[in-house]
Every structure is written in structure tokens, then in C-alpha cells.
Specification:
Elements: H1 7-10, H2 23-36, H3 44-60, H4 64-95
Length: 96
């Protein structure tokens, strides 16, 4: 089912000629692992890993990219709050 290769052997072809102890090479190998990782998108865990990747990327950025990430998160939260507000209004209208 899964590969029994460990981290050092997983990307041998992509990392030929690079020092495996170099922090930039390790970051590149981690990036390759994220790009090739297959996770189910139809489960809660899959969605949460996607949100975690977005949050990690947003925390590493600065300037306009960070502003866009903050705006996207704010719009998502605004949508959630409006949905809850209207749902509570409908529930209270039904009850009373």
C-alpha cells in the first residue's frame, strides 16, 4: 500500500548533488513531500490539513500576501457569523 522508504530515500532523484544536511535542502524536501502528499479531501481530517497548510503559508508571508490571507479569513468568518445569525433568527421565529 504505502512506501516503506524513509525521508532520506524518498526524494533521491530530485535531490541529487545537494547536501542532505543543508537546511535549504531539507526545506526543499519538505516542500516536495507536501506537493506529493495524497490526502483525502472528503474527510474532516483532510479539510483540516488543508487549513493547516493555509495557516502555515499565511504565517510565513508578509506584505500584500499576508493582507490577502487575513481578508480571506475575515470573509470566511463573516460568512459563518451571518449564517449563524440568520439561522438563530429563523429558529427564534419558529419557536415564538
Amino acid at each position: 500500500m504505502g512506501d516503506s522508504k524513509d525521508e532520506s530515500e524518498k526524494f533521491q532523484e530530485e535531490l541529487i548533488g545537494l547536501d542532505p544536511h543543508d537546511p535549504e535542502t531539507q526545506a526543499f524536501a519538505e516542500h516536495l513531500d507536501k506537493m506529493k502528499r495524497q490526502r483525502p479531501g472528503y474527510t474532516v481530517e483532510g479539510y483540516l490539513e488543508g487549513v493547516q497548510d493555509f495557516a502555515d503559508s499565511a504565517n510565513r508571508t508578509s506584505g500584500h500576501q499576508r493582507l490577502v490571507a487575513v481578508i480571506v479569513v475575515g470573509l470566511i468568518l463573516l460568512g459563518v457569523l451571518l449564517t449563524i445569525w440568520f439561522a438563530l433568527g429563523d429558529i427564534l421565529a419558529i419557536i415564538f
